[in-house]
Amino acid sequence: MPQLIAGNWKMHCLAADAVALAQGVAAGAAGVEAELLICPTALHVAAVAAALRGSSVAVGGQDCHQDAQGAHTGDVAAPMLLDAGASWVILGHSERRQNHGETDELVREKCLAAVAAGLTPIVCVGETADQRSGGQETEVVGWQIAGSLPKPFSGVVAYEPVWAIGTGKTATNEDVATMHAFIREELVRQFGEAGQTIRILYGGSVKPSNAAALLAVPNVGGALVGGASLKADEFLTIARAAQGG
Ligand code: PEP
Questions:
Q1: Which stretches does DSSP call E strand in 48-117?
Q2: Which residue among 156, 225, 235 has the greatest number of ligand 1 atoms within 8 angstroms of its CB, and so is best to mutate?
Q3: In angstroms, what CA-CA distances link 227 with 9, 17, 21, 176, 234?
Q4: In 118-228, where does DSSP find H-type helix?
Q5: Which residues of the chain have pLDDT under 50?
Q6: What is the DSSP letter of 162?
């Protein structure tokens, strides 16, 4: 299976900038062996999907509601993302867990809604700096996997240590190897043989200078990229460091 390089644009870009960035990524995507995905704000999914039409780059949302429709002011439902051209959705990002109080249980419900709508979820897990310094990182991630992933699970897991997101600090290759091996073990324990093929992305200050080394770590199935995905050339350099199928 090819590695997946996913860009999380977070709350960046006005519409024209989002379209231009998407066009820049699409223009350089030919010949990239990795699977490519960009996740703009929900408001720009349709415009970005239109800009990417005919390219190999997919579009995703950054969150969805757990209900397919209803009285939920300000929220976006999974079928709406699909309707706008998305095929993926990021769920349980640490910024949503921290800023919106999202629990494992809620992330699991959102995951079910995403799959029911036909989207592939990318479920984020990862420990805080305090949890790591307290030696609790595997325990925390194990609980997040057990609580956030529905059974069966047809999606992708992203390991994103919270202390590495947007900070410029990256987990060492050894830390990534240890955590991804642990996540693989957990996935196999919880999902049997199916757990062997679930892709596990690494996220947290991935950039052109560290991408090749991180993407070569065993059990790393790709990268979730924040800051560096806002520049087409940086995102494409990361994508070229990834492995095809
Ligand atoms: C992210 O928020 O998913 C992320 C990995 O951000 P950054 O690459 O900027 O650390």
A1: 57-61, 88-91
A2: 225
A3: 7, 15, 13, 19, 9
A4: 129-133, 137-148, 173-191, 208-215
A5: none
A6: G
* Token pair listed for 34: 């990795």
d(CA 137, CA 2): 28
Distance 166 CA to ligand 1 centre (A): 5
* Token reading at 39: 């996740």
> Which residues have CB under 6 Å of ligand 1?
8, 160, 165-166, 203-206, 224-228
Q: Is the pTM of this model over 0.90?
A: yes
> How many Cβ atoms are within 10 Å of 138's Cβ, its own excluded?
17
Q: Please answer whether residues 10 and 226 qualify as being in contact, where contact means their C-beta atoms are separated by less than 8 angstroms.
A: yes
Tell me the pLDDT tens digit for each residue of 64-108: 999 999 999 999 999 999 999 999 999 999 999 999 999 999 999
Q: How many CB atoms lie within 10 A of CB 30?
A: 8
Q: Are 88 and 119 in contact (CB under 8 A)?
A: yes
